[in-house]
Amino acid sequence: MDTTTLASVASVIDGKTPTSGTEYLSRNPADLADVVAAVRLGPAEDLVEAARVARVAQAEWAQVPAPVRGRVIANLGRLVEANQETLARLVTREIGKPYAEALGEVQEIVDTCDFFLGEGRRLYGQTVPSEMPDKQLFTFRVPVGVAAIITAGNFPVAVPSWYLVPALLCGNAVVWKPAEYAAASAAAFAELAWRAGVPAGVLGLVITDGPSTFDGLKLALEQRLVDKVGFTGSSAVGEQIGELCGRHLQSPCLELGGKNPMVITEDADLDLAVEGALFSGFGSAGQRCTSLGTVIVHEDVRAEFTRRFDAAVRAATVGEPHGPILYGPLLDQKFADSYESTLDWIQPHHTVLGSTATGRITAENPRAGFHGEAGTGLYYHPVIVDGVRPDDRIFLEETFGPIVGIIGYRDFEQAVELANKPGYGLSSAIYTTDPTKAFRFRQLIGAGMVSVNNSTSGAEAHLPFGGNGSSGNGSRQSGIWVLDQFTRWQSMNWDFSGKLQKAQMDVATVEPELGYRLPEHWAGR
């Protein structure tokens, strides 16, 4: 194929594009013949060089007053808003996300910018009283320094904004490595950031593959060029990055996979629960870290819920992402290959529901009501697996595709035990009309996020996002909570007494009369 007329995407370091690298073709997963961009994958040294440039640029960026940095973030929000439809169409074309969802993803950047532009005037510290006279104590938020941000491609612009916007606002420089299969969307977002006023050296874009990213990060950490690592991706890779950062006494921000449970109690509104399970499990083709993994439903309503859920999934439209669909194609060929392996986890004791078949949707393996031409893209049948057991691989591991398991329970304690068993801890949901069950579930579940009568998916820009266990290391993104990822607390004491006052030693004391007792006759004795 002649790629000379294609859009080209490559790393951008200090405003310049390196010339070395290997070619990767970013294809439209809804139409594999449509090549979105010719992507140049650079070597590990590109990440090191970007970090070196960022180290120099960050010192100057940190001196820009925080309210002015906030205005740059405001500029970014307005630019994204002005380019919302174009950016959303690119996201849809490059990763196959339904256009309506892509518009929502771009809106999330705008919401994030709108929230953080004001934080430029609210990077508060405290004035703290001292235990000694003529001495004052202060705390300040200071930038971490250089942040290396590595993001997945299922949310190619929204999730990166959760990192980039607060990191830049706080005075850090950023080296951003996006997913290569979403490189064009990343390049477009980075271009808007530079146009908004982010200096070229303060934001570097590094396009490379996974192994080169790890090698480059290792070198940059060894040379003390990176002060903070942010990673969104699989739990397996997150463990490797966490281990690497630990060798350098760094605590990364890890947002990893999920096996998100949805508990449906015997008193739940079943129609609402079905609606929530449909969106949670099959929206974005199940390719969200917050996608529903297993429905844990009370035995008294299990049969009826399963019947309604099966009917809803069978009636849902799958297909071309610009149409009125529930979901489109899988993100990329590597995810299609992985998902096909996941289908091998279905066992004889399982009952498969939700579609006319399993696997890739083709003319030979059709899906009733498919929208568009099935054979052109990476489209897969939705799958409900009823009869899941607690020791099944499909119950314990993330599937990252359009597949949802169902398991029954008899009592509430068993439901919570099942919900916590896989060891992930990102998102969760409970459908109930009993407030006691809702609050008890919130208290006992190990997830960082809990929904009541709502989807396991759906983040808002001002609420903390993140998980525990295999889903992350307890770090949080979004809202004011992410500021602790991109700033460090610095304390200062200022003694204006004119003499050395030593803490814990030169402290005035007041001696109480601890032996005093109230007269007993006051009590009428």
From TrEMBL:
<dbReference type="InterPro" id="IPR015590">
    <property type="entry name" value="Aldehyde_DH_dom"/>
</dbReference>
<dbReference type="Pfam" id="PF00171">
    <property type="entry name" value="Aldedh"/>
</dbReference>
<dbReference type="GO" id="GO:0004029">
    <property type="term" value="F:aldehyde dehydrogenase (NAD+) activity"/>
</dbReference>
<comment type="subunit">
    <text>Homotetramer.</text>
</comment>
<dbReference type="InterPro" id="IPR044638">
    <property type="entry name" value="ALDH7A1-like"/>
</dbReference>
<comment type="similarity">
    <text>Belongs to the aldehyde dehydrogenase family.</text>
</comment>
<feature type="domain" description="Aldehyde dehydrogenase">
    <location>
        <begin position="22"/>
        <end position="491"/>
    </location>
</feature>
<keyword id="KW-0520">NAD</keyword>
<keyword id="KW-0560">Oxidoreductase</keyword>
<dbReference type="InterPro" id="IPR029510">
    <property type="entry name" value="Ald_DH_CS_GLU"/>
</dbReference>
<feature type="active site">
    <location>
        <position position="255"/>
    </location>
</feature>
<dbReference type="InterPro" id="IPR016162">
    <property type="entry name" value="Ald_DH_N"/>
</dbReference>
<dbReference type="InterPro" id="IPR016163">
    <property type="entry name" value="Ald_DH_C"/>
</dbReference>
<dbReference type="InterPro" id="IPR016161">
    <property type="entry name" value="Ald_DH/histidinol_DH"/>
</dbReference>
<protein>
    <recommendedName>
        <fullName>aldehyde dehydrogenase (NAD(+))</fullName>
        <ecNumber>1.2.1.3</ecNumber>
    </recommendedName>
</protein>
